[in-house]
């Protein structure tokens, strides 16, 4: 006996393969492979969780989440990104990852295509396969801006959804309003959804962030995904959300009854404090990430034989070292021979092969050391 074909055709993320290799490697490694803020969760957020525990708030909540948190999410989406969701349009999830998985399970029929502009996050492929759908890569050309025409040309009768992530993981590019709106309108005409992955929206550096669903008059076919993980340095708290029309939220909530049931209650209280409390810690992180972005951009521009697009959000740079066609082999060699860890570009689709993703969620000193090692190796 063996697991189902559905499970067997899923691959491990190369990011995690490099993470595990780094864990087994002795020495002073500069870790630039994992997308996780290097800041502590804000004090008032931790205090809210402790207070909830001391009040005995440790039981199940509604499958859709605490009403106060659903309201806080809707208010935040309206205030920060222009969304018009109500509390009933929000489903609290166990991280943004679960929100993405639930979205795929909810709107993709077996055999549907999920269009993925690439380079794209590896888990999109897996989430499509677990929904018995087909992940379809739509490669974007350097500097990896969204080519709406290319995505629209790939739409057809089997298209169930399009995955858009802006700011992008792994490239850090922020898609223009016009291109996003064009894809959403075309998806609607094909009776397909757009799954708008906005987990990095708060970390947009060169313009004000805008919710993708706000760019069209009819947003019925848009599912907005968000999370506390990146903006509030709460990766381990596992609080995310899915926001769309209430009928889809109600149907999707049924899946949670058989999976995670509800997000941990103390984490939900912490999320309320994060969204409704002081936003100064978020602005401090934004400032630090912007400074690091500028440093990394300048350093990469100075390196011979390296091409990289300018990161406009999130905390990633995507670089193309000339002369390498096996990014996994290169990434492994950089760990064992140079002492610096990157995510191999092959994990982000065929368009990423030969390239590396750098996470600048690390101190300027460590970034300097890591880029010195990369430059010397190349």
From TrEMBL:
Protein name from the UniProt record: Aminotransferase
Regions annotated as coiled coil: none
GO function terms (MF aspect): pyridoxal phosphate binding; transaminase activity
Keyword match Transferase: yes
Cofactor: pyridoxal 5'-phosphate
Enzyme Commission number, as recorded: 2.6.1.-
UniProt GO BP: amino acid metabolic process
Alphabetical keyword list: Aminotransferase, Pyridoxal phosphate, Transferase
One Pfam family here: Aminotran_1_2
Quaternary structure (record): Homodimer.
Similarity comment: family membership: Belongs to the class-I pyridoxal-phosphate-dependent aminotransferase family.
Lineage: Archaea, Methanobacteriati, Methanobacteriota, Stenosarchaea group, Halobacteria
Record SUPFAM superfamilies: PLP-dependent transferases
Record domain Aminotransferase class I/classII large: where: 28-372
């Amino acid at each position: 006996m063996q697991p189902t074909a559905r499970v067997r055709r899923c691959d491990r993320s190369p990011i995690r393969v490099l993470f595990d290799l780094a864990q087994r490697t002795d020495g002073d490694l500069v870790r630039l492979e994992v997308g996780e803020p290097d800041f502590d969760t804000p004090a008032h957020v931790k205090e809210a969780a402790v207070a909830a525990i001391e009040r005995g708030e440790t039981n199940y909540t509604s499958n859709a989440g605490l009403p106060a948190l659903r309201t806080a999410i809707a208010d935040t989406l309206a205030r920060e990104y222009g969304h018009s969701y109500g509390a009933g349009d929000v489903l609290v999830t166990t991280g943004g990852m679960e929100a993405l998985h639930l979205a795929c399970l909810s709107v993709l029929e077996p055999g549907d295509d999920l269009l993925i502009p690439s380079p794209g996050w590896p888990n999109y492929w897996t989430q499509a396969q677990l929904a018995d759908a087909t992940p379809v890569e739509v490669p974007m050309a350097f500097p990896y801006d969204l080519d709406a025409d290319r995505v629209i040309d790939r739409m057809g009768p089997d298209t169930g959804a399009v995955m858009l992530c802006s700011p992008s993981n792994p490239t850090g590019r922020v898609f223009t309003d016009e291109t996003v709106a064009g894809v959403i309108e075309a998806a609607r005409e094909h009776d397909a959804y757009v799954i708008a992955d906005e987990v990095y929206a708060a970390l947009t550096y060169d313009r004000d962030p805008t919710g993708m669903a706000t760019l069209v008059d009819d947003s019925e076919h848009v599912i907005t995904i968000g999370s506390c993980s990146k903006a509030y340095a709460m990766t381990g708290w596992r609080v995310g959300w899915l926001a769309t029309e209430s009928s889809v939220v109600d149907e999707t909530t049924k899946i949670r009854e058989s999976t995670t049931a509800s997000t941990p209650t103390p984490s939900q209280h912490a999320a309320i404090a994060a969204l409704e409390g002081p936003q100064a810690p978020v602005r401090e992180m934004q400032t630090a990430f912007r400074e690091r972005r500028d440093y990394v951009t300048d350093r990469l521009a100075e390196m011979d034989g390296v091409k990289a697009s300018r990161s406009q959000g999130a905390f990633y740079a995507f670089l193309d070292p000339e002369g390498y066609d096996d990014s996994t082999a290169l990434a492994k060699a950089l760990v064992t021979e140079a002492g610096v860890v990157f995510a191999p570009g092959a994990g982000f689709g065929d368009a990423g092969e030969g390239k590396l993703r750098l996470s600048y969620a690390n101190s300027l000193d460590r970034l300097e050391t890591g880029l010195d090692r990369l430059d010397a190796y190349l």
